[in-house]
Amino acid sequence: MLDSGSVRHAVARGAAMLLLAVALAAAVPPDDASGLAAPRGRGDVHIFKLGEKVAPHGGRVRIKPPVEWWGNARVQRKSMTVTIGARNVATDVGSVRLGPGKYQLKTKVKYQTWKLVPHVFVLPPGSVVRLNSTTGNDVIRVTFSGCRVTSVTDVTQSSGTLTYGCYFLGWNKVTQEEFVFPVMPVQGTYQPGQFSDQVLEHFLGGQYAGFVSSTNPQDLIDEDTALDQLTLPLELSTEYQAPGNVKTHRDSRSQSLVVRAGVKPRKCATYADFRAVNFDFSEPEKYGDSMGQVADTLRSAGKRISFTDYGDYVIEFREYRACDENASLRVGFVDGRAYAKSYST
Fold this sequence. Notes:
Keywords: Signal. The chain has 345 residues and is mostly beta strands. It has four helices and 22 strands.
C-alpha cells in the first residue's frame, strides 16, 4: 500500500505522464519505418485556356489568372491584363470581376523550378530537445515525442539498469512528407522508491523519469517518462531531399475570353417545382419539407392564406406564385412541415 509520500509522487507527475502517453501512442514507429522522405516529381507551371464564363444576371463573374503548377515548382507572381476592344479594363491584377462581353486576357507568371538533391540532417550529441516542441533547419522539422522503457537488464534485482526508447517525428517542408526517425536507445536506472519500497522509480540520465506501483522490474517495461526535455546522448540524423539547382522562369499567354449573361432567375414556380415538394399527410414531421425548403423549391416565401392554432398543433396554408398565370399553387403545413399541397388551373 502506498504511503503519503508516494501519493505525492503520483499527484506531482501523473498529469505529465498522461499527456506523454497520448503523444507516444501516435509516435511509436512501425518496424519498417524509414527516415527518408519521398521526393516530389519534376515541376512545371502551365497557363491554361479559360472556357466560357457566365456572369449572374445583372452582375459580374470573378476571374483569376488561369495558372496551375505541380511537382517541384513554386509560383512567385501571377497577374492578368484585361482589355475589351481598345479599352483597358485591368492591368497586372490578381483578379478581376467582369460583366458580359468578349475580352482579351493576357496572363503573366513568374515561377521557380528545382531538382531535389540529397542532404543529411544532424542533431549532435548534447543537443537539448523539448517534449512536443520542434527544432531543425529550413527544410527539416523534428519533434521530440517522448521516451518509453523498452527493456530491463535484470528483472530479478530490485535495482539496476534499463533502456528507454526515445521517439522523434520528422517533417520535410519541401516534399510535404512526414517520417519517423529510428528509435534512439537511451540508458537509465531503476531503484526502490524514495518514500516507499512498494514502488519502483526510474531515472534517465540521473533525472527522475517516473514510477510504477510494483516491486517487479518487469512492470517497468512500456512505462512512459515524465520528462519534458532530453539531452541527446547520441547523434540524431536522417537523409532528406531538399531543393538544388533552382531556376527562375517567366511565361505569358494571350487568349480571348467570352463572358455571357446568366439567365434571369425565376420568381415563380413551375408544375415541376410543385411536384418536387415533399409532403406527407400522416407524418409530416418525418417526411414533409420544412417551410424554408418549400420556399426554396417554389422560388418564393408565399403568402399566408389561413392560420389556425389548435393548441397542440398549428395548421397554416400558403399560396405561391405559379409561372402559369391561370394556376393556383398551395401548400398546407402542420407545425411548419408540409402535409398537403394542391395545383389547379
